[in-house]
Amino acid sequence: MSKKILLDVKNLKLYFRTRSGSVQAVDDVSFRLEAGKTLAVVGESGCGKTSLAKAILRLLPRNISTYSGSIIFDGEDIMKYSDEKFRREIRWSNIAMVPQASMNSLNPVMRIEDQLIEPLLLHDRHMSKKKALDRVNEVFNIVGLPTDFLRRYPFELSGGMRQRATIAMALASNPKLVVLDEPSSALDLLTQANLMNVLKKIKHEFNTTFILITHDIGTASELADEIAVMYAGEMVEFSSADYFYTDAHHPYSRKLMASVPTLREDKELQFIPGQPPSLINPPQGCRYSARCEKRFEKCSMHPKTTELEHGAQVKCWLYDETGEVKHA
Ligand SMILES: Nc1ncnc2c1ncn2[C@@H]1O[C@H](COP(=O)(O)OP(=O)(O)O)[C@@H](O)[C@H]1O
Ligand SMILES: [Mg+2]
Fold this sequence. Notes:
The protein is α/β, with parallel strands linked by helices and about 325 residues long.
């Protein structure tokens, strides 16, 4: 059976205009995601993960200076859609997003139920209130919340429950792709684990395609089929999760892996000294090179993307076109 590519992003750029110059938040990012798979996007804070999500959903602030590339979704280049068509046919109905800190963005003076049916009624003028309520009950079940909580106000729910409610809201339209921006980072460990189980269940039962944004590579491992590592606005590695967790390639990815505590090994945790460069006039060469222990002469030039075996991609001069390590 041929694999269906749901999302094919090519040379995506999103730059913001500021007084000090242009912020290259998403710089020439390309990747493909198969239907039914989960892609985890990982990397330190400020590396452009949220900006990548916003670029895909066309949720753009006013101060954009560059927004280009192509986004083929389900066979169509949605970058070419007008804003109106994008709003009508793509955002929420086909690609839904659970924004960062969304559990705190529910309207405090509105019952959960009313907040959940609102987008359904707005997007489909023929939908009856009864049908919308049925669907909302259904998605509440899917995320494992008791349906009598629908009549409650947000403050009557715990943080973890509110987070599930926002996920239910995103699922209500039965979207093909759901983008979750740091869905569990504000939750305690147990609630995080429960949420990951809910997402796993949804993934398996409904074959939903997810993009899971997280700065926590441990959380990512729960759900991810593919891993994308962002560094300073660029996607420096893209790999299947199995392959990544046993053999990450980019020196930055390896450092991220070494910073995750594991139950099995009693290893010394590493942290990555230094910080990512400014995204205004970032270095000409490899953006990671200033922090990289493996840097050599070539790193003063901008690395191109190398395809490795298993279809993994890495942006690092240590690997040549054949995927062989040249300077490790
Ligand atoms: N509207 C904006 N205007 C200017 N800079 C922005 C804007 N939004 C985000 N940025 C900058 O873009 C970079 C990437 O941010 P973001 O995508 O939020 O990273 P992450 O989600 O990985 O933490 C950061 O340097 C951030 O300050
Ligand atoms: Mg973010």
